[in-house]
Amino acid sequence: MKSNHKPIQSFKIVQYLMTIYRQRLTRILLPLAVLAFIIWEAGRELKNFNLARMLHELRRMDAMFLIEIGLFSLVAVAAMSAYDYVIRHHFKLQIKPGATFRYAWISNTFNNVFGFAGFTGAGLRTVLYKKSGVPLGVITSAVVFLSPVVITGLSLLAWGAIVHLYPVQPVLDAHPWLHWALWGMALYLPLFLIMQRSKRYATWFNKGEGQLSWFTISASIGASLLEWLLAGLTFAWIGTHLLHELPLYAVFGIYVIAAIAGLISLAPGGVGAFDIIALLGLQMAGANSDRALAVLLVFRVFYFIIPWLIGLVLAALEMIPRNERLSQLAETGWDYSLNAWQKVWSWPGQFRFLADLGVWALGKLVLISGVVLLLSAATPGLLYRLRFAEHLLSLPVMRLSHEISVIIGIMLVVLSHGISLRIRRALRLTLILLLTGAIFTFTKGLDFEEALFLLFVALMLWISRSRFYRVSAPLNRHNILIWGGLSLLVTGAYFMIGAGSNTPFMRHIHAKVHLDFFMNRSDYGVTAVFSLILAWVFLTVYFFLRPQRSIGKLPDAQEVVKLKEFLERQGGNLVSHMLFLGDKYLYWTKDDQVVLPYARSRDKLIVLGDPLGPKELVSQAIQEFQRFADRYALTAVFYQASPEYLSIYHENGYRFFKLGEEALVPLDSFTLTGKSNQALRSAKNRFDREGYSFEMIQPPLDAALIEEMRHISDIWLDGRKEKGYSLGWFKESYLQLAPIALLKDSEGKVIAFATMAPAYDHGQTVSIDLMRHLPDTPNGTMDYLFTRVIEWAKENGYTTFNLGMAPLSQVGQSEKALREEKLARLVFQYGGHFYGFQGLRRFKDKFKPQWEPRYLAYPASVFLPILTLELVYLVSKRSD
Fold first, then answer.
1. ∠ CA(643), CA(645), CA(651), 5° rounding?
2. How far apart are CA 305 and CA 65, in angstroms?
3. What is the CA radius of gyration of the chain?
4. Residue 200 pLDDT level (bands cut at 50, 70, 90)
5. Residue 156 CA: distances (Å) to CA of 25, 192, 264
6. With CB atoms 3.0 to 4.6 Å apart as the test, which of 27, 429, 685, 812 could cross-link to 817 if both were Cys?
7. Phi and psi dihedrals of 204, rounded to 5?
8. Sorting pLDDT into bands at 50, 70 and 90, what band is 271?
9. Which of 214, 213, 146, 224 lies closest to 185, judged by CA?
């Protein structure tokens, strides 16, 4: 019997909602909309917040408490591994318990910091478990199995709030929408228990293996309850320590409501929604707003940031192949042939596996170091330390240390970009600044916590020094504006925090306390301006007045001779003759058996055509060139790549965009006879009758002819600039290298010319290169000139004549074409006002060519529209 029930996916409204949800923009806007709503709701309560007092509360925290809460936070995060042990047992994964714990720590800590609705944790689990040999189907089932389980524990805690185990009513009354959120979360657990007994759940979440056992269900809910309970206790412990007036159960209840709000927002770690609701709840419970915010910051650092940094190190170690890691550990064995001093000096280099700590993270640590220095300088120090420092040192030394700390902080913020790019020069300067900053942040007020952090970051950089291999990186206006703006922003923040904390802090100090070591508002302003200027002057001198780090030198006469000999021996391609223009660098590799001609455009090295040399060496040559480009933080791109080499480019990580097609005329079949060639035949006969003559001149050319051609070229350009790179231009030394076709009128005056470009394939192919004519030439001039040149090539034994590219020809024809190629198709069809794309294609079609596609090969990391603009700029400028 045929059922009349339609599946739910068949309803139009469901399809519409699913389509909306699949859009990436919606996934981003939904959390932002929720966050905006919460901030709007909480705007009035945040008006009384004082940043200076909050920072002062943080600096007064007891060191022993920080150690205790740090250890408890690590235990709370470690408890989240219970999820992975449940799926390890349920799916019978052949993974050791220690590896399970590491995978859990990495996945959970990254998900806490970055995970939208658990996607980050799911992705990392997939990568890590697959690396251990677990089949992808099993991994997917395990990840899907976890998705409905993780919030069951929070649902249990929501029932605790409903039955008044902890007081949350004031928060709910202030924001009625939280009633719905609380009841929705509470009802999730019974719905989950009902759902997991259904056949659909067994199909989707249990790999089709029937209903879950009650042991697995209980263990899953227990793991979830353990996660949320320990996280809440961590928050509550911090809250009761900083807010002595609030009991543990009251702070815990606020955490539950805030966690529900954060979960609804879908933001990573509930950032925004969790913090606002927790802050409002603590204030309603009677807490001071500044101390309440201090609770949130401490919780974020100890429960999220510190475990994530540990997870980052574990992830770096996991990504090293096991056999390589063992061999590296073996290298750390004690070698009795070395004395103790050699051991101390070489120790970090032996632990090379530690160098795999993500350089991206190191850059962010350096950025944080700069912010820490500025924050430390902006906030008042502890009185007993300041008194002791004043007796130990002197007030001028403390003030000087303060100003130097600000300068170093600004420079570290800027240098963090160089650390992320792995630049050796940035590493050396950063190490010096970190060590110097540790000294001066200590002497300005005995702030040993900040000094230890800077020394720790310096140690991490030193251990990872082998990862810094780049000689330099492109420095353009975009980078200067970004990092100049960022340094201005952090300096402004230093001034606002410092100046803003001065007055409120002074009110809390006894009138008899000596205040000479405290700065007033104007002192902060002077220090901010002076430090920013001095930091940028120093960085400018350091980076701009250094020895030039050139990526190569343009070929001189000796290298041109070497290139000629290479092309005669190894052969070339259709663009090889362009290399004699002298505007492209030559990268020689594989014992000079392969050469790659390239030019630089911003942060790209753009190779013209395919690498020249034996095809079996091309792949290795490309890899070596990629490493060469990477040393300068540049990207290798190949322009006008031919179909013959696409598989090689693909193997080396390149994508493709079709640039157009090259018109190649097979000379053995070229003829002017027949009806289809009547237009060309008529043009040739007409020009012959009218006394026009064709002549092919071989170099060397005399000066008079050069000047006559220059005159034609200048008139043809009509003030326009010559183009370059992939196009020839009027350059006397270049014109002297190949034959030139001349078209003369009946009086013997040259009215048009075209230069030839040999392909260096032993006389098989010749191309037309530079074409210029006077503006008053009769219609059909180019038809006649091209026809005569093709006949000359055929008579001189060539087999193929290259008419050149038809840009964007046959691009984006398929319905499955890339969006960029479809856009290029529209430009080809409707861009005739700017460039005669279709007219050029029709003109070359007269000669019955065979069309061969040409491609742009570019890495996936490159944004194609930006690359296109860079190519346009490169071709539009000419290097003499």
1. 120
2. 18
3. 36
4. low
5. 33, 12, 16
6. 812
7. -80, -45
8. low
9. 224
> Could you give the CA distance from residue 699 to residue 318 in angstroms, rounded to a whole number?
64
Neighbours of 378 (CB within 10 A): 27
Indicate whether this model's pTM tops 0.85. no
**At a CB cut-off of 8 Å and minimum separation 6, what does 659 contact?**
639, 640, 805, 807, 808, 811, 854, 855, 856
Measured CA to CA, the distance from residue 372 to residue 528 in angstroms comes to: 15
DSSP code of 862?
S
Q: How far apart are CA 595 and CA 597, in angstroms?
A: 7
The residue written with tokens 């050699």 in the block is: 342
DSSP label at 770?
A: E
| Model confidence pLDDT, tens digit, residues 814-867 | 766 666 666 766 665 555 445 556 777 888 888 889 999 999 899 988 888 788
CB 500, CB 386: distance < 8 Å: no
Cβ-based burial of 315 (10 A; exposed 0-12, middle 13-18, buried ≥19) = buried
Question: Cα–Cα distance between 689 and 809 in angstroms, integer?
Answer: 36
State how far the Cα of 305 lies from the Cα of 299, in Å rounded to an integer: 9
Q: Answer for the pair 352, 416: CB distance below 8 angstroms, yes or no.
A: no
CA 59 – CA 382 distance, rounded (Å):
7
Please give the distance of CA 142 from its chain centroid, rounded to a whole number.
30
Cα 534 versus chain centre, distance:
30
Distance in Å from the first CA to the final CA of the chain: 83
**How many Cβ atoms are within 10 Å of 36's Cβ, its own excluded?**
12
Contact (Cβ atoms closer than 8 angstroms) between residue 590 and residue 616: no
CA dihedral (461, 462, 464, 470) in degrees, to 10, reads 80
Please report the pLDDT score of residue 201 as a whole number: 59
- 705: Cα within 13 Å, side-chain hemisphere: 19
